[in-house]
Amino acid sequence: RQLEETVELSEFYISKNDCEKIKELDSTFHSCVYSQSGSRMLEKVLSELHRSIGLYRKRSLENPGRIEKSVREHREILEAIKSKDAQKADELTALHVSAALKNLLGVINGG
Description:
There is one protein chain. The chain has six helices and no strands. With 111 residues, it is mainly alpha-helical.
């Protein structure tokens, strides 16, 4: 339920154009997914990675349109999880990570 609330709040704050709150909720979404993975080791590794690239992630989300796209991707992942479609959730997560990485590399390389 926390995952769903996080996505709903993110969508609400997009309508309010509150980027700082959405960035906080983005971290909450990822933390929820990590904790629901069922693997304490995976949760620990991903959480640490998430923290290490925090500054770049925040800058990445400041790219025009990226924050809205990220929230849409979170919604799609959530819907796949709710429908218990693990394969679709996995595919959507891979696409989300790929889009985030591409955007992040653009930020790091100054583009």
